[in-house]
Amino acid sequence: MAIKSKITGASLRNLTLEDRRINDTEVSGFHAIKFKSGKIVFYIYYRLGGKQVNYKIGLGSELTPAQARDLARAKLGQVAKGQNVQEEKKLAREESKRRKYLNLETYLDKKYRPFLEARNPKTVDKIIGHLKSQFKHFLSKDLDRITAWDVEKWKSERIKLGRAPATINYSINTLKGALSRAVEWDLIEAHNLTKVKTLKNDNTRIRYLSEEEEDRLFEAIFNRTELIRNKRISSNKHREIRGEPLYPSLSGVRFVDYVEPIILTAMHTGLRRGELLSLTWDDVYFSHQYLVVKSSEAKSKKARTLPLNTTIMDVLKDWRKQHPFNHYVFTAGTDKPLTDIKKPWLRIVEKAGLSNFNFHDLRHHFASKLVMAGVDLNTVRELLGHADLNMTLRYAHLAPEHKAAAVNLIG
């Protein structure tokens, strides 16, 4: 049963659980409640739209009765002026919660990463790592301080460094996506990155190897393989002299590591980098000479079947013999999927003297060879996994004899 009394230190000490509440006699609406835990909380109550509203002033362990009474007077004064102090408190609490994530780096780690992990855990590290490496100077910025002008300046710098339009566009769109989620979650009111124009990307670029360049690539791969073999022999000789355990010999195997088989597989299947890295031995059907790209790994989200020629069948069979118990086709040391091939690839390209040739161009090389061998474009489209023929049409110019034959039909 509530009692009426001036709220003081003494009256609070004498307050029992049966009494539970003291209504202050000095400030109408100001009261203190005692809970079973022994905790005392100061409140005010007032009417809003005909309903009684309780507003928490603070804890008895943090405020003296006099301090709590002064705060109660101030809040009741605001209520008398028509202010909705309860709603203002709620908004202030939400703003405080939002402030926790406004720094870009904190937002990426605490809010955006968990969201990505729930959607597609395989891509989380790539996306977060990309944003942090490409936009280092934005990490300490509040989300609402990252402007279109900031990104335009970043874009100009990347263009001067010679970065590909597709690469720049990917970075900008990834940042836009992260900030759009922050808007959706009410962490910021808005962002203006929609004003940043994407760069025109020439999708017609085709880069494939001439016969002479292909020979140089294979020579560079062969030389790398022999160098690694010789280093292993030399290393084991030294270890033997010192009485240390020897490394596995590379003399009796075809491949010294994953590099040669993954390059050959790319050249003879046209698989995208992500499709190669996620490929498992369960996807390779040796008895029927084909492999399957699962829908979950395909860019189009549609599964496709790829026949394997004798060259790549031999490559995969020999590679499988070297790693009979692995789940993933391409691994580096452990049975975990390979995540990158950039460093060894760049060294091989340099040794082969190949200019302007990326790992993805092995896919172009595969498609170009097919077209130049007379394979129709729709079949090439199916093998590449293109959603429609528009992307495949870029290879049409590589078969001029077919165009000539078509014109001669009416000659």
From TrEMBL:
Pfam families annotated for this entry? Arm-DNA-bind_3 (PF13356), Phage_integrase (PF00589)
Q: Does the keyword DNA-binding apply?
A: yes
Where does the source fall among the domains of life?
Bacteria
UniProt entry keywords in alphabetical sequence: DNA integration, DNA recombination, DNA-binding
Question: What would be an example GO MF term here?
Answer: DNA binding
Q: Give the Core-binding (CB) domain ranges.
A: 106-183
BP-aspect Gene Ontology terms: DNA integration; DNA recombination
- Ranges for domain Tyr recombinase come to 204-408
Report the family membership. Belongs to the 'phage' integrase family.
The protein in question is named Putative integrase
